[in-house]
Amino acid sequence: MSAPYEIRVIGDPVLRRRAEEITDVDGRIARLVDDMIDTMYEAPGVGLAAPQVGVEKRLFVYDIGEGPQAIVNPVISESDGEWAFEEGCLSVPGLSWEIVRPNAVHLTGYDLDGNEVSFEADEYLGRVFQHELDHLDGVLLIERLDEDTRKEAMRTLRERQLAAEEAAAQAGLGRGLASRLGGLRR
Prior knowledge:
This protein is α+β, with helices and mostly antiparallel strands and 186 residues long. The protein folds into two domains: 13-145, Peptide deformylase (Peptide Deformylase), CATH 3.90.45; 146-186. The protein contains three helices and seven strands; from the N terminus they run αβββββββαα. The protein has helices spanning 27-42, 123-136, 147-170; strands spanning 47-49, 59-62, 69-80, 83-89, 92-101, 104-110, 116-122. The strands form two sheets. Strands 1-2-3-6-7 form a five-stranded antiparallel beta sheet, with helices on both faces. A two-stranded antiparallel sheet has the order 4-5. β2 (59-62) and β3 (69-80) form a beta hairpin. The radius of gyration is 17 Å and the shape is globular. 27% of the residues are buried. The mean pLDDT is 90.
């Protein structure tokens, strides 16, 4: 089975915009959640935010081994401590960095039935929540890096884009094949 959605990658403008609140959880949102879960599993990943599939809504799905869940309109109201941990992102494929984030967070939001949900999440689950919420606010993982590391990451991504474009040209497929890392030449 192929994933219902293509995951948007760095350079796609949708990843830089703040997602809109969801005012009504209807059948379209439920189908979106199902498709996002399928896409997340196929990637594979442990979390996926709606903007990563081109939908500018405040929604994310996750599964850290306890079954898939969706949170609508999530908000982190409290955080505590600090924890450095290696973190990657489906929208910045193939790269990961040690990122310092709060160790524990209090997150509220809504489930697909419109019920308020509340979590005291620490360590890994707390990190997943923070990472996905960043996507809803238009923040990419690469922006959490110090300036020198961010420059090196962008250089690596540009080199990968050029290599993909060269391989596509040699195969006679044109630039379209390499567009998944488009927008990096600025």
